[in-house]
UniProtKB/TrEMBL annotation:
Taxonomic placement: Bacteria, Pseudomonadati, Pseudomonadota, Alphaproteobacteria, Hyphomicrobiales
The family this protein is said to belong to: Belongs to the ABC transporter superfamily.
CDD domains associated with the record: ABC_TM1139_LivF_branched
Sequence ranges assigned to domain ABC transporter in this UniProt record: 2-234
PROSITE patterns: ABC_TRANSPORTER_1, ABC_TRANSPORTER_2
One example GO MF annotation: branched-chain amino acid transmembrane transporter activity
Protein name per its UniProtKB record: ABC transporter-like protein
Species of provenance: Aminobacter aminovorans (Chelatobacter heintzii)
Superkingdom of origin: Bacteria
Amino acid sequence: MLRLENIHLNYGRIQALRGISLEVLPGKVVSLLGPNGAGKSSTLKVISGLLSPNDGKLVLDGQAIEGRSCSFMVKSGIIHCPEGRRVFPEFTVMENLRIGAYQRPQGSDVEDDLNRIFGYFPRLKERSQQKASTLSGGEQQMLAIGRSLMGKPKLLLLDEPSLGIAPKLVAEIFEILRTINRSGTSMLLVEQNAHMAMKISDYSYVMENGKIGLEGSAAELKNNPKLRELYLGG
Ligand code: ATP
């Protein structure tokens, strides 16, 4: 469904992405792993239209979309759940979720989706009238994922959903991500937590210095000594 071909991105004189090629097939969970500064978040920002690549192709369902606006990407079904959650702290859980549906036409099945999300995350239902700032870190991550789902993603981009969250909640969130994927949402997951990410991924790419250093299924990568080396930054 999504293909990146030789994507380059520069921040001024810094070459953050130096020829990234990867693919997310329909219905799959693909993870993008690698050490700090490898270029994982930058790759997601190119896909969601936050940044325009200097070179290369981005193809969604056969259509070239590189450099299009965030609004175009959202309408095409690409939704970015950013690093650090970025919930609106002064708004309630319910208000944050409804904001996620802002690009959808009036009268579409927003209420059904709210119920579906409360089914995935009962904690959010219990806290629906609570301000987002009063949620725990893990609950805020659930809210950020729920808000992204309100945009009806075909492809959900997740940036470090495990960051700063207690291990027990991380396991719970990853389990729910798998359930969401089984209901038909493809995912591209950026993670530092390679072990956890590979557990739910059909395929993984490992980035190093703006390039893909290694790729394969969890079974293929598990015993690869280069994974450890790359992942730890050499
Ligand atoms: P992390 O896991 O730490 O978030 P990452 O793999 O997501 O790392 P990126 O955030 O994509 O990496 O950063 C890739 C490179 O681009 C890094 O060297 C970073 O310093 C640089 N970079 C990122 N954003 C900017 C920016 N706005 N201006 C200049 N350089 C940037």
